[in-house]
Design brief:
Elements lengths: L5 H4 L22 H8 L13 H4 L25 E7 L2 E7 L8 E7 L2 E9 L12 E7 L20 H14 L11 E9 L6 H15 L9 E8 L2 E4 L3 H4 L4 E7 L4 E11 L1 H29 L13 H18 L5 H21 L3 E2 L2 H4 L5 H8 L29 E2 H23 L14 E5 L7 E7 L2 E10 L5 E3 L7 E3 L1 E6 L16 H14 L12 E10 L4 H15 L9 E8 L12 E4 L3 H6 L2 E7 L4 E8 L6 H22 L16 E6 L5 H5 L4 H10 L3 E4 L4 E6 L2 H15 L7 E11 L2 E7 L2 E6 L20 E9 L5 E4 L22 H11 L8 E4 L8 E4 L73
Parallel strand pairs: 5-6, 11-12, 18-19, 29-31
Antiparallel strand pairs: 1-2, 2-3, 3-4, 4-6, 7-8, 7-9, 9-10, 10-23, 13-14, 14-15, 15-19, 16-17, 20-21, 20-22, 22-23, 24-26, 25-26, 27-28, 27-30, 28-29, 30-31, 32-33
Helix pairs in contact: 4-5, 4-13, 7-16, 8-9, 8-12, 13-14, 18-19
Length: about 950
Amino acid sequence: MLAYPSSIHGRATLHCHSQPPQFLLSNRLLFPICSRFAASGKCKFRSLFTGRNCHRFGVRAAMDSSESTGDGGTLHIPLQPYSVKIPVGDRHILVETGHIGRQASGSVTVTDGETIVYTTVCLDDVPSEPSDFFPLSVNYQERFSAAGRTSGGFFKREGKAKDHEVLICRLIDRPLRPSMPKGFYHETQILSWVLSYDGLHSPDSLAVTAAGIAVALSEVPMSKAVAGVRIGLVGDKYIVNPTTKEMENSELDLLLAGTDSAILMIEGYSNFLPEEKLLKAVEVGQDAVRAICNEVETLVKMCGKPKMFDAIKLPPPELYEHVEEIAGDELVKVLQIRNKIPRRKALSSLEEKVLKILTENGFVTNDATLWSNTESIAEILEDEDEDEEVIVDGEIDEGDVHIKPTPPKPTPLFSEVDVKLVFKEVTSKFLRKRIVEGGKRSDGRTPYEIRPINSRCGLLPRAHGSALFTRGETQSLAVVTLGDKQMAQKIDNLIDVDEFKRFYLQYSFPPSCVGEVGRIGAPSRREIGHGMLAERSLELILPSEDDFPYTIRVESTITESNGSSSMASVCGGCLALQDAGVPVKCLIAGIAMGMVFDTKEFGGDGTPLILSDITGSEDASGDMDFKVAGNEDGITAFQMDIKVGGVTLPIMREALLQARDGRKHILGVMMNCSPPPAKRLSKHAPLIHVMKVKPERINLIIGSGGKKVKSIIEESGVEAIDTDDNGTVKIFAKDLSSLERSKAIISSLTMVPTVGDIYRNCEIKSVAPYGVFVEIAPGREGLCHISELSSGWLPKAEDAFKVGDRIDVKLIEINDKGQLRFSHRALLPNTDPDNSNSDVRQPPGKLTEDTEASSKSPDKDLSKNITSLPKDGLAEEKIEQPKDKISSPKVTASSKRSSEDDSVLPSKKFIRKSVSPSPDKPSSNKDKMKKSSNKAVGSVSGKDESSLVSGEA
């Protein structure tokens, strides 16, 4: 229940009930006293509520005094909700208004499936100071409660906008801002929340449509409704507002916004889509937007609020004439200055000159608030003393001694802000006129010409990859950093799934790049948007994670800027990726296109003039900013912003074809980069080795609470070890030695022993009366029973062996508990093959003869290939042994084998997915047994490291 203040009209209760559609105009309440006093000519406060001043003091909509009835003062507030179903693609969206957020100037909820977006529009009562941009702010937020979850971070309350929320804010802002009328300075705020999300229907295109409908229902004097849709391409079928599942197979992600007659904004990414397919998608999107806008217009007629057209305050028309008369000739000369900084200073000096001349002539006042309503002095004087009689000069009333002359007509005054706004518009007009009439731009180029390009790579010696790309007065320093999975960017989204980005591009725009002083802080919305555009442009040329398992970060710092810095980031980032050794699929270039829409105004034939590679002034004074990235065959990313009523498909077709020619030229120059990209990994980049183990043995690497993997990292000295449930292990190291150490440890932990495997030079860890325990790999031990230690009878194991001795053993048994049993006797020369439990089947005495022969002739026939066939079939590994590195001492029949008598095979070749043994031990001639054995020997350990035989890694 609402009530008026008792000091004004007693206690008047407002009864809220439904009204017919023609009364649904405004939910703003005005005191009835305003209407009464306004009707009286004696009220000295009349100017507060009548005429143009009413908007200056916060009154936005007048209400009829008939709404106040007697002592009750009852007012009727429109509360009746309205809803309409609008067909979009193969389904309908539900638009509702009047049941939530009724005090806002405009509020709607838009529902698609079970995804609901709520949007409000509010205006400030008092207009802001006039400026060259519309005071519009947009905020979009995805509530985690919409998906039934909370934030995964420490703070459980939604706070600062995330990057993807900022990108959607820009999608909402960009089509609405150019459709706002000039001269409307009431600050406008659009707030949008995702209240429900079903994981199937994306909320971003709904948010654009909801904002356009809310503005159309509000008091903002926007002439046409704006709507937005997403277009996907699955096979040859174009889908309007596709679901998230359909987008997984789509070659196109296009978001388009516009009115029923024109396109205002497009942004999208594609898989090297040709221009014709892109234009077809735009056509499908425009038809869908037109259908939505037609339905919205019907809704606005039913429940829309009256527009504040009388709040539009434009500079006086005569001010344009004064500025052109003073600065016209000099503007022509200033706009011919090629360089940006001198031209900017000359324009600033000319603006000060215009202000000074107008001030000296009495046309300019510094009190902008007094004249912002452009009300003449005569009208103000009439309001202040309406009842006083005025007598014309020279005319005398004989019956009245009070004779007053008529005040002289005041000189028209303009505010300083108005002069600056008009000067900017006049400058833009002269710049467009010069391009159309003379065919030359400010820097002397033709409309199709590209600025000079220079690029160089390897600029920073310690960076993994770097490139400096310069195009005219726009320059980007791109730096690439390679890292492990821990460097990946974590995304906290509505879906309860951890999402990591292995590639991201970060764009920064310091004030020094335009020769100015500014604040340095968090990245602006513009920086986030430009960075995402460049990132999505390059994403498609990156190799898969299996082929290149690095996390890639690209930093683009704009060191000079005069237009199209985001496209310079695309070119520089592509070269930096090559310099870092990333195997990109192809080169990508980007270009920004501009347009002069109405050429007939400047003596042309009326056909829009398309400009290639626009500068900053052409972007500010032109009618379009169309960025296109891709190669010669297709487009990977595009973004278009319009500053006029919109563009048509023929204009877009011409711009896309002209952009393709520009990309070809830029790609040709990039291929001649000097110095060229290194195209190999930097010596400062980390090393990554990928191993495949059995998935069920991953836990052996991780250990309890991750203790084992931490101990491996500390012991080997690697940077990190990443494991996956599918058995993939990634080792990140700074040097090769630490990488090999960790690889050997992991291989030993995950090996699968098989009966018949032979393990060389294994250390005895403990001795018991019934046998010895032998370590075949770190943490893997087994028992060699006393009966298997010698070919003869042995009373005690400690009589022949002690802790630290090294012997060769053969695996003869694995019991139900996984315990290993070894045999040393099976490898002795005088062992009876029938009692050895060995798979090595040879004639008696054959091994001894071969051993003696090899010891007599060590250089004869010793170059061999020892092949390990893994038991799980994951890989096959071959290690070639050079002749001069193998020696074979004589083998005695003694049961005691010292470490000096044992020898192993060296490995001189670094083999992926294998354990690299120590290269300082020679091979025993007993390895010749592999020729007749069904179990092949894979690798053997060195003195300090035990390794597996026939193990998989």
